[in-house]
Amino acid sequence: MHTELTISQADRRPMYLQIMEQVRRRVAMGDWLPGQEIPSIRALAASTRVSVITIKRAFLELEREGVVVTRQGRGTFVAENVNLSRTLREQELEDHLTRAAGVGRELGLTSSELEVRLRDVVKQLAVGAPDGGAGEDE
Amino acid sequence: MSTAAIELREVTKQYRFFTLDKVSLRLEKGLVMGLVGPNGAGKTTTMRILMGLVQPDAGEVEVLGCRIPEEQVRAKWDTGYVGDEMRLFSSATLKWHLDFVRSMFPGWDEAYAGTLLKRFHLRPEQRVKGLSRGEEAKALLLLALARKPKLLVLDEPTSGLDPVARQEVISELMEVMQDEERSILFSSHNTYEVERISDRITFIDRGRVIDSDDKEVFLERWRRVSLGVPDGVTLPTLPGVIDVARSGRVAVVTANAFDPALLPAYEAAGATVHDVQRMTLEEIFVANVMSKRKERGE
Description:
The complex is a heterodimer of chains A (138) and B (298). Chain A is mainly α and 138 residues long. Chain A contains five helices and three strands; from the N terminus they run H-E-H-H-E-E-H-H.
């Protein structure tokens, strides 16, 4: 199993989020299969050269998302019923939102102005697709 | 029996121009603690006290469950220390040093020493006087690591190293942490490095511990909020905010106990929230030192 994750100093997101993203990708791409055991927190900390506490936090959040499961005394595994496409879509959404927020900042928009813009878009989508098909169109 | 790798309680040491003032710290087993502070803050003195090299005037010190200085010999069997004042014998070879340390410590791991020599690109037949500064630093670290100590106390282990050597050293330290019984206390001016590999972080300034917490908690607690403040609007004083820098219609608020409820509170007062940003450890450190100095009227 490929264990080295990478952390970039140029990436402004906190390290635990960078780790979460890479684990989600590995699971979504099928590198890490459902039910497969994931290297221990300490092994991942050593290969990634990042503190144990940061890997722990990333795994705690991934567990909450349902991507991994921890079995007491046995280690951490990729969840059996992990929804791969959903995981990948979640990642995609995160990327789009990050990009949108970045452009918003460049335009000098405040966070509340951005929120209003997002709400407007959601409203428009709801009007255009009353059956709840929102998210299918760009 | 305490389970801490290191425990200091109200440790004080007075010098003519510097006082280490009631320093309390605790490092649990299996964790890395990064010690961050300006030059002359007391990092080296703290480490020297832990190693029994400096006798405190007051307070209690325990290393691996041994009282210091009374039981320092027992503690030192299991502690690897690399201080900034340490030098190897310049006319001797690296092999001579390896043999010397091996003869003293039964826990010496010859195979691991060989691996480290390769990873650090060192040759045993090299004479110390021919080593670069970075090579000597790596050699000192190797001599401490190959003993497989339960605790490593490292005073600026990466200072003076080039980026490649720095990564080699950091990799080895994290390799040590695969064993959950082992712990590391280290100091560094490279705050990115500290932010990356520490589980716990302690800030020291002018002989005092000004903050000590889990790394993730530290990074979650601190935020910088940019506000637009129209003329005539006064910003309310809110809990968790340690600094408000206002210039014209823009204010930058620094919070050390950020709560999302701050944002509606500022907006209710007539300000607009432009941006909420996380802070790097370096930014947190500087803001922390500045606010504590201001608080004490220094």
